[in-house]
Amino acid sequence: MSSDRMMATSYRFEINHGGVNTKRRTQEARIALLEEQAFEEKNILKKNQQSFKTSWSDSFDTLNDTFRSLNHQKGLQEDLKIIRKANILVRRDALKRLYHQDYVQYEAELNKKGLCIHKERI
Predict the structure, then answer these.
(1) Using alpha carbons only, what angle is made at residue 57 by residues 56 and 59, rounded to the nearest 5 degrees?
(2) Cβ distance 14 to 20 under 8 Å?
(3) Please, which contacts does 111-114 make with residues 24 or more away whose CB atoms are closer than 8 Å?
């Protein structure tokens, strides 16, 4: 009789409290929810990794562009320095030629008048 009573009690308990099937469905729902949360977390981690890689790549490209432009600027500065030196040499040469031409012309004018330039050598 006690075994009948136990079966009746458990049966009544299962009916009043949702039974085994309800507990299984609840557990399956909870497992499905946890799996869904884990899947979402995994996707978020993938997105974060991809965004980190992208941001790292962007910052590296920006840094690379910065160094490239700095090197280009250094090259331009060196080119300008060389051009300035060449310009100074050309201007000096032109000025020497001008002075020489003026000297020759002045000496010719003085020779026409019967005068000369005294060159003192020490």
Answers:
(1) 65
(2) yes
(3) none
In the numeric block, the tokens 């965004």 are attached to: 51
As a whole number of angstroms, the distance between CA 36 and CA 44 comes to: 12
Does 14 score more than 70 pLDDT? no
**What is the Cα–Cα distance from 65 to 59, expressed in whole angstroms?**
10
Tokens encoding 110: 């003085």
What number is the average pLDDT over the span 22-34?
Answer: 83
Tokens representing residue 12 in the block: 């009544």
What's at 88, amino acid-wise?
Answer: I
Distance CA 47, CA 43 (A): 6
Extract the tokens encoding 118: 């005294």
CA distance 16 to 14: 6
In the block, which residue shows the tokens 């008048």? 113
pLDDT of residue 25: 80
Quick one: which H or E segment has residue 22? helix 19-112
pTM of the complete model: 0.42
Distance CA 87, CA 79 (A): 12
